[in-house]
Amino acid sequence: MNFKIIAAAAALLATQSFAIIGVGAHYAPGFGTKMKAGPKAKVADNINFSHEGFDEMMQGFGFKLWIDLLPIIDIEGTLNIQFGSYDASLYVVNPTSGAENEIPLEIELAGTPFAKANPKYVSMNGDLSITYPITSLPIIRPYIGGGLTVFANSFILNQAYVSGLIDDPTLQQMIAKAAEGGTTPEEIQQQQAKLQETGEALKERVQEKAAKESIKTSIGGHALVGFRLKLPIIPIAAYCNFKYYFGGDYPKEIDAGHMTLEVGGGLAI
């Protein structure tokens, strides 16, 4: 048995393996957040609207920068983006025949990294954390800490929002014309075509406004517990954090879970 190799390996593992600075990316699911569904309700004459909710785990990802150089404490800066998808639709109702036609809505949210798709609730947060590490252990570096969080939340596409878009004069004129009744099959068919055109015009207005809607920001904080794992010499580290958030403003449909797990890795120099 080569005792020199064993001794060298033992000395290597006993070496403190922290880095001066590190940068990484991580998976960041959110736990416990729920969104309430909205009932189907009238937003204009012969046009209804409803949206679904969600209660599954929010998916997410993030990026992290950390500094181990300071005595006693370390510093972390983190950006997380989490999202939950939900369905939303307009329903065009013919008042004469009672026929109802669904128009699913797809929107693009301003200030988020998502293209046009089913509506999403997007929660973004920037964390500045101060952590207290346990430095007596080789390879693994446990820590606890907390800090400041800036929250940025998207709006929810709900009945009040859609109803507020009916102020467009062109839309109002289309709604008024589509409300004119029909008695013969041809007139009923024409009325349905007008209603469908009105619904599609409202859909385009929703998409146009959503693409310009600003993200709302607020201030709060967080507590965290976690660890980093790094072998000596090798400039790669893995990390895992659990964070609990407090404070922040959310849309009324959102029941925030306040919990996030960060699992990832990156370069540690």
Describe what you observe in this structure.
The protein is α+β, with helices and mostly antiparallel strands and 269 residues long. Helix content is 20%, strand content 45%. It has four helices and 15 strands. It has helices spanning 3-14, 159-163, 169-178, 185-210, and strands at 21-27, 30-31, 34-35, 38-44, 47-51, 59-67, 74-85, 88-93, 100-104, 120-133, 140-153, 216-230, 236-247, 254-255, 259-268. The strands form three sheets. Strands 1-6-7-10-11-12-13-15 form an eight-stranded antiparallel beta barrel. Helix 3 (169-178) runs antiparallel to helix 4 (185-210). The longest helix is centred in the last third of the chain and has 26 residues, at 185-210. Residues 6-16 have low confidence and may be disordered.
**Number of strand elements:** 15
Global shape: elongated
- The rounded distance between the terminal residues' Cα atoms is 34 Å
What's the alpha carbon Rg, rounded to whole Å? 27 Å
The proportion of residues in beta strands is over 45%
Question: What kind of assembly state do the chains in view correspond to?
Answer: single chain
The residue-averaged pLDDT reads: 88
Walk across the major sheet and give the strand order.
Answer: 1-6-7-10-11-12-13-15
The percentage helix is 10-25%
Give the helix tally.
4
Described by strand count, sense and barrel closure, the largest sheet is: 8 strands, antiparallel, barrel
Structural class: alpha+beta
Unreliable segments (pLDDT under 50, ≥5 consecutive)?
6-16
Order of helices and strands: HEEEEEEEEEEEHHHEEEE
